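Need fresh eyes. Consider my entry:
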Amino acid sequence: MEDKKEDLIEHEEELLIEDDTHAHKKERKNKHKEQIEQLEAEIKNYKDKLLRNAAELENFKKRMNQERINDRKYASKNLIADILNPLEQLNMAVNMKTDNDVLKNYLIGFKMINDQFYSIFEQDGLKEIDALNKPFDPKLHHAIEKISNPDQPNGINLEVVLKGYTYKEQILRPAMVKVNEWSEENGKDK
């Protein structure tokens, strides 16, 4: 009987050991499963980061390419802006009225040179802003004075004091204008 008891005890111990190893195996399996899920989540995170970085790099390349294109396109913008004032002074000088025939001949020659400069700049993309008798546009015009003329529509540029220019869709200099602004209540205590 004692042998049977010992056999039963051994059998129970074996079962306990077997249950323990089975539980231990299950616990290890769960740990491995958790590690696998964690690693898969990390892989997914790294893939996402990789795709984002690739997209950012592609956008950066496009931006840099566009900047290079714009740099080439507007390369002479600063030069034209610097030359514009002396050229306008020359334009005013060659268009002055005189009765002296010798001076008229000189002015005709200088006017031809002046016109060539403007022609070259226009070919490169310089355009005068058409402002006279046009509605005031703060993007294109800079109001330096208000005029009250009820015979003219409100908000119209009545005089261009200094011409404005665009260069290839960019404002080089806004036109300096005098704007018509009046109302029925002007001069009345209302």
About this structure: The radius of gyration is 42 Å. The mean pLDDT is 85. The first strand starts at residue 126 and ends at 128.
